[in-house]
Amino acid sequence: KLLSSNTGSDFEFGSSVDISGDHAIVGSPRNNINGFNSGAAYVFSKIGIDWIQEQFLQPNNGLPNDEFGKSVSISANYAAVGSQMKSSNGIEGGATFVFRNDGNSWSLQDTVFASDAENGDLFGAATAIFGHNVINGAFSKDDPIVSTCCAFSGV
pTM for the whole thing? Predict the structure, then answer.
């Protein structure tokens, strides 16, 4: 059982999860750490038979309603955290934050926005990372009836 250090019953802790080796990541998109529904993610490490919270992840510029942690993915020393309502230049198109573990802690490596972002795209509603490659879903891109997916690599 994975337990977080600071989550409430309505924070949706566990609404997104992933595992890679002895590391797991758990999303909590309705965590209120940076305001209502700003979101958070938690990295756990397996020590013996127990899973211990290793680090609490937040974006460097978290705001209310970002929903950081809506999607999470982890692969070796990299983790990706989707924030489907994140704003960039006044557009709520979403973003994905890529973190890297240097052996001691997880730190923000990159923030990925769609180059053609539009309000309501929901970029980052789904994310996956493997090595240096990240793929993000933006299922409301262009037309809410026709889904699209945007892939980015080299982070």
Answer: 0.90
